[in-house]
C-alpha cells in the first residue's frame, strides 16, 4: 500500500514554470496563425497586381503597338483619346469630320469624349466611388479580340476583365477593369487611364505602392476616383492624401473615411473604391 507522501507526489499539479512554457507555446501558435493570414493576404494582393492589373496594362500597350492607335480610337483619323471612334468634331464623327481643317485636332475641339470602355456595366454607376462616366458603345472584350490581343484570364472565358477575391473580413469582392479618357484638370489623372473598380482601400494602397512607390490617393500615376475631390482640389500635385476608406469600416457607412469612425463588425462587407492608373500613351 502506497504511503500518503507518495500519493501527494503523484497528484501534484503543474508548476509555474510548466504553465509559463505552455502559455508561451500557445502564444507562438496564435502568432503563427496571425502571421500566416497576413502572408496569405499579401500573396493574394501580389497575385491581383502581377497576374491581373499589370497584365491589363500590358494588353493596353500591346494594342497600341499593334495598331498604332489608342484603345477604341479611330485608325484613319486618330484623336489621341481612348474611345475616339465615338467622338465628334465639327458635328461629324472623328473619322469624317473637320476635313476643311476649321478646328484644331485637340481634345477641346471634340465632343462626346470621356466615355468608359468596359465589358458590361459591372458595378452600378458611382457605387464604388463617385465620378463614373457613361458607358461607351464599344465593348472592351470585342475590341481586344478584333485585334487579336491576348487578355489576362480573369474569371474565365468572357469575363477576362474581372477578378474575384475576398476582403479582409472574408467577403467576396470583384475587380473590374475599364479604360477611359479624362479631360485636363482631372485630379485622379488627366489623359488616358486604366480604371480599376472594386478595390478595398487596403488593396488600393498596395497597388499604388507597386505602381509609383507610395500610397497617396492624389499623387503619382495611380490615384483615387472621386468627383467631389476632383472639383474642389486646387492642384493635381497635392501630396499626402490618404485613400478615402479603411478596411475596418462597413461599405454602407457614409462616414467611412481614413480618419473618421464607422461600423467595424468582423462580418461587414468592406467598402470599395475605384482607382485611375494613368497610361503612358
What does this structure look like?
The protein has one domain (about 10-70, about 115-280). The protein contains five helices and ten strands, in the order H-H-E-E-E-E-E-H-E-E-E-H-E-H-E. The chain has helices at about 5-10, 15-65, 140-145, 200-210, 225-230, and strands at about 90, 90-95, 110, 115-120, 135-140, 160-165, 170-180, 190-200, 220-225, 275-280. A five-stranded antiparallel sheet has the order 6-7-8-10-9, with helices on one face. It has a three-stranded antiparallel sheet with strand order 2-1-3, with no helix packed on it. A hairpin with an 8-residue loop joins strand 7 and strand 8 (about 190-200). The longest helix is centred in the N-terminal third of the chain and has 52 residues, at about 15-65. The chain starts with a helix and ends with a strand.
Amino acid at each position: 500500500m502506497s504511503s500518503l507522501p507518495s500519493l501527494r507526489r503523484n497528484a501534484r499539479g503543474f508548476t509555474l514554470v510548466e504553465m509559463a512554457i505552455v502559455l508561451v507555446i500557445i502564444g507562438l501558435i496564435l502568432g503563427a496563425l496571425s502571421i500566416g493570414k497576413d502572408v496569405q493576404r499579401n500573396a493574394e494582393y501580389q497575385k491581383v497586381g502581377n497576374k491581373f492589373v499589370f497584365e491589363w496594362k500590358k494588353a493596353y500597350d500591346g494594342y497600341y503597338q499593334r495598331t498604332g492607335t489608342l484603345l477604341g480610337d479611330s485608325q484613319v483619323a486618330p484623336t489621341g483619346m481612348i474611345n475616339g471612334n465615338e467622338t465628334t468634331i465639327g458635328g461629324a464623327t472623328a473619322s469624317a469630320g473637320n476635313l476643311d481643317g476649321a478646328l484644331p485636332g485637340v481634345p477641346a475641339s471634340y465632343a462626346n469624349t470621356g466615355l468608359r470602355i468596359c465589358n458590361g456595366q459591372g458595378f452600378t454607376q458611382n457605387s464604388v466611388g463617385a465620378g463614373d462616366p457613361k458607358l461607351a458603345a464599344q465593348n472592351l472584350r470585342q475590341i481586344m479580340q478584333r485585334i487579336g490581343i491576348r487578355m489576362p484570364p480573369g474569371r474565365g472565358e468572357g469575363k477576362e476583365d474581372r477578378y474575384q477575391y475576398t476582403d479582409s473580413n472574408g467577403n467576396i469582392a470583384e475587380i473590374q477593369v475599364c479604360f477611359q479618357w479624362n479631360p485636363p484638370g482631372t485630379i485622379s489623372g488627366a489623359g488616358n487611364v486604366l480604371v480599376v473598380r472594386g478595390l478595398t482601400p487596403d488593396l488600393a494602397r498596395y497597388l499604388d505602392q507597386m505602381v509609383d512607390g507610395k500610397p497617396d490617393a492624389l499623387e503619382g500615376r495611380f490615384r483615387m476616383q472621386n468627383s467631389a475631390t476632383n472639383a474642389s482640389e486646387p492642384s493635381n500635385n497635392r501630396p499626402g492624401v490618404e485613400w478615402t476608406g479603411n478596411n475596418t469600416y462597413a461599405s454602407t457607412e457614409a462616414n467611412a473615411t481614413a480618419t473618421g469612425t464607422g461600423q467595424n463588425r468582423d462580418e461587414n462587407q468592406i467598402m470599395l473604391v475605384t482607382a485611375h492608373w494613368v497610361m503612358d500613351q
